[in-house]
Amino acid sequence: MRVVKIDQDMDAASMAVMKPVFEELANSESDVCFDMSDVHFLDSSGVGAIVFVFKRLRERSHRVSLVNVAGQPLRLLRQLKLEFMLSTRPASAF
Hints:
alpha/beta
């Protein structure tokens, strides 16, 4: 399992900069866990990046999990019915 700490909000501006990282993760040969403890804002660009990685990894029978999600990002993920990616395990457990 590869743990990736996201240390900034996931909005259009930050996702434009982080696009190469998400493309690399989408080609990973292992499960990916996003530690979102420092993400205080998530918009459609951030959701799109997570879903992009999720779909690509699922094709190869790998999983994406999200840990330490709170506040607005958590509410948005629940509204979008993406809570199946949420994990209650701390990132250090992976």
